[in-house]
Amino acid sequence: METGGTPAIAVKKTSLTPKAIIHQRFGIKACYKVEEVQDSDPIGCPGLAIPQKGPCLYRCSLQLPEISVLSDTFKRKKDAEQSAAEKAIEKVCLVFLHSC
């Protein structure tokens, strides 16, 4: 026995990442620069003659026409870029709200 209704269509609700929002708003005017930052905490034994390098961390600076922001340090480049974009969104919103 068939039901007379139409099949339910699942609607995907996609949320944009901070970097995607920056791209929509600024396009090619947004410039991301990722740099490697060495962890300052020494690893290994204090008496060891050969210094050991810590894990490599990344920091991203994002240049926009109105502002520039610097992310915190992260283990992944992608996370540093997202952090910079998130900070830029917060800063742009504050500037926009403050100018009204």
UniProtKB/TrEMBL annotation:
Highest taxon in the source lineage: Eukaryota
Gene Ontology MF: a single term: RNA binding
SUPFAM superfamilies: dsRNA-binding domain-like
Extent of the signal sequence: none
Domain dsRNA binding: 23-91
Keyword entries, A-Z: RNA-binding
Protein name: dsRNA binding domain-containing protein
Organism: Escallonia rubra
